[in-house]
Amino acid sequence: MLVLATLAACPLKATLGRHLAQRLVQIGVNDVFSVPGDFNLNLVGCCNERNAGYARSRGVGACVVTFTVGGLSVLNVIAGVYSENLPVICIVGGPNSNGYGTNRVLRHTIGLPDFSQELCCFQTVTCFQAVVNNLVDTQELIDTAISTALKESKPVYVSVSCNLSAIPHHTFSREPILFSISPR
């Protein structure tokens, strides 16, 4: 979609969101399927999480969903693309990074103060999982997730704390290493 390409090409502040958009464009993702929500990154909207399964026609796909509610809804799609050997980057707008370790129950969870519930569900249907709740090693986590999805032709899970996507960080100013593996 034009929005994703424009965001990736814009030479403004180096943020996690821009880095992620740039990396998705570099592997050929033009459309990111998303269901609007308050713990979502702002991208392209669609009617429900099942639309994420269209990687088959493009070679690689991406979706963005809300924490737990959207994640559990898209889980069937991710299991399906896992069985069909399709690389999909499943991005979850995760809890605020300040919320980790507070033992609080969020309304987008299943009622437990443990933020790893969703991650546990995705472990059997993705080939790599990353939880981004700080900016220190984020570039490496995102790049490892994307390259693993391409190399193994399987979906990956990337949870990004909702308060981090627009924060500038010096690590995103570095030119990322180009992916050497193309999607099938």
Quick recap:
The chain has 184 residues and is α/β, with parallel strands linked by helices. It has helices at residues 2-9, 16-26, 55-58, 69-83, 117-122, 138-152; strands at residues 33-34, 44-45, 61-66, 88-94, 129-132, 156-161.
Description:
There is one protein chain. With 184 residues, the protein is an alpha/beta fold. The protein has 6 helices and 6 strands, in the order ααββαβαβαβαβ. It is globular and about 40 Å long. The two termini are 21 Å apart. The relative contact order is 0.19.
Write out key terms for the chains shown.
globular; six-stranded parallel sheet; 6 strands
Total of DSSP H or I helical runs spanning 4+ residues: 6
Low-confidence stretches: 38-45
Strand line-up across the major sheet: 2-1-3-4-6-5
Q: What separation lies between the terminal Cα atoms?
A: 21 Å
What kind of sheet is the major sheet? 6 strands, parallel
> What global shape is seen?
globular
Could you say which structural class the secondary elements and strand pairing correspond to? alpha/beta
Which helices and strands, and how do they pair?
Elements: H1 2-9, H2 16-26, E1 33-34, E2 44-45, H3 55-58, E3 61-66, H4 69-83, E4 88-94, H5 117-122, E5 129-132, H6 138-152, E6 156-161
Helix pairs in contact: 1-2, 2-6
